[in-house]
Specification:
single chain; 16 strands; eight-stranded parallel beta barrel
Length: 375
């Protein structure tokens, strides 16, 4: 029996829409989770994030364990209270950042040992410690197992070894997590771009039994086409009655194509990272507000979006803010981008519910192809 009920209300091809019921509220799927790396969605207040329509946000275990520290966060009432977010929070395990940021020193059967990118201090992360931090100290609603994600391209033997280590760590994560009524634990499928490994990983995960299942090891440099090739089969190996979460993805076109292949949940730093660098996402693709052609453009980014940043400010003003390196420009573009991503998800949910997802998908690609800059 899974901790959270997952009701799928409609299917259209492989795409599906529904609701994941959590103790802190409903998550409408397909769902995009804004990334709150260090207990904040960068440049935005909690109220601004809520105004975009986001049901859930993501917290980053690696960054929070280094600063301010999990025990301090627990003393301060947990992550929800600390950052004033009362909806669901999913936390990643810390494993990906350990591999990519820390100047990793050692992976063994027991643990991963690494040095902090902040001050060089030495840390040891085991599956059990990752669960303790996420579930007991931070108080996350959805907790991820510790896994090993290989870089791309990877040799099949390397990908197989990492996948099987992830399986063993997943079982240890599950044992440490135990039975909980108000929190859920997701397992992570690995296997790089090798179909046989993805199938084996899924079989191992299902045997262990998790509340939900993530597809890991993508968006690591393989490109959109290769990602879609993996998504042609990888989601289908996972249980159809549980949520499927594609980690770290992505651009709007990635989201649409992944939903078409049966994925329910997403997270990515792209909307806020783009916003901090002068880039806005629209139905016609990405727009670079640094471009001189916007210097006297009095039109808004999107007058039809119910977001002040999208509707009430001229592109000329946003261009000026970006060129002047004013903080307000980063705030407004991040706010617009998160709103656009949430509107995109809502549009996909509606299209699936009404049995017109394929028409939506074709129209999306048509508008993208006609855009000035593309995505």
């Amino acid at each position: 029996m899974s901790a959270f009920a997952f009701d799928i209300s409609a299917r259209d091809g492989a795409a599906r829409t529904g609701v994941l019921h959590t103790a802190r509220g409903e998550i409408r799927t397909p769902a995009f989770m804004p990334v709150g790396t260090a207990a904040t969605v960068k440049a935005l207040t909690v109220d601004q994030v809520k105004s975009t329509g986001a049901d859930i946000i993501l917290g980053n275990t690696y960054h929070l364990m280094l600063r301010p520290g999990p025990e301090r966060l627990e003393r301060l009432g947990g992550l929800h209270r600390f950052m004033r977010w009362d909806g669901p929070i999913l936390t990643d395990s810390g494993g990906f950042q350990v591999m990519s940021l820390s100047g990793i020193s050692k992976v063994t059967e027991e643990s991963v040992t690494f040095r902090s990118h902040i001050d060089g201090s030495r840390h040891v992360l085991t599956p059990e410690r990752s669960i303790e931090i996420q579930a007991d100290r931070l108080g996350a609603d959805i907790v991820m197992q510790l896994d090993q994600c290989v870089s791309w391209p990877a040799e099949e033997a390397e990908a197989a070894a990492a996948m099987r280590l992830s399986d063993r760590w997943g079982r240890r994560s599950k044992a440490a997590f135990g039975q909980r009524d108000r929190q859920a634990l997701f397992g992570i499928q690995q296997g790089s771009t090798f179909e046989a490994l993805r199938r084996e990983s899924a079989e191992r995960l299902v045997e262990a039994g998790f509340d939900g299942y993530a597809i890991g090891g993508l968006a690591v440099g393989e490109g959109h086409a290769a990602m879609c090739d993996v998504l042609d089969y990888a989601p289908g190996f996972l249980p159809a009655d549980r949520p499927r979460y594609l980690m770290g993805v992505g651009k709007p076109v990635d989201l649409v194509e992944a939903v078409a292949r049966g994925v329910d949940m997403f997270d990515c730093v792209l909307p806020t990272r783009s916003g901090r660098h002068g880039q806005a996402w629209t139905w016609e693709g990405s727009v670079n507000l640094k471009n001189a052609r916007f210097a006297e453009d009095d039109s808004p980014l999107d007058e039809n979006l119910d977001c002040p940043a999208s509707r009430d400010y001229a592109k000329a003003y946003l261009h000026h803010l970006v060129k002047a390196e004013e903080i307000l420009g980063q705030v407004l573009l991040s706010w617009h981008n998160i709103t656009f991503f949430q509107v995109l998800m809502a549009a996909m949910r509606g299209a699936i519910a009404e049995g017109r997802f394929e028409a939506f998908r074709k129209d999306f690609h048509s508008r993208l192809a006609g855009g000035a800059e593309g995505s």
